[in-house]
Amino acid sequence: MTHGPARLRAVVHHAPSCRVLRPRSPVALTVRSPLARHGEGRLAGSRAALVLFGAWCRVAAVSPHSVVHLPLEGLDLVLARSDTGLRPSAWKGIRAALSPGRPATLRSPAPRPSPGDDGALAVTEHAATLFLLGPPRALFQLGDAVTDATADVPHLRDVRRYGEAFLLGLADLDMDVLVRDERYRRRH
Q1: Domain count, the chain
Q2: What pLDDT sits at residue 104?
């Protein structure tokens, strides 16, 4: 199951070298076991939050001059195309120089099939931020994989029983996607 284009409520900030897009409301995701430090990690959140994350990945894929910044529990997450020229070591300065920002509504592109491989995502951690940088096709594939992983959530017994279930291992990134759904958790 894929989700169509999403309307994203954002705040657009301008920095000297790029435009930074942030969600107006926090995305309820958690990055556990940072990838850059341990070689593996886990992205956890509700089904809705993961679908939203997939939409933000697709926005980053089509925005050659924009950086998507998702403030999350634990580490922050930055998604950007590799051709933006963003250097993770410059992020702290960029974040400090951001304009106050203006509200905007963005429309994420719909998932689309992507035959072939256009390259992999580079994963780096710097200044308490996890960076996922790569070519547009790799960002689309990440967004689509996470979004598609949520399709079977209502039918999974573990989610109904325990409130969370492992759904997908992203082998290229060694990252697990974990869906939490508190409304299904049985009360003991």
Answers
A1: 1
A2: 95
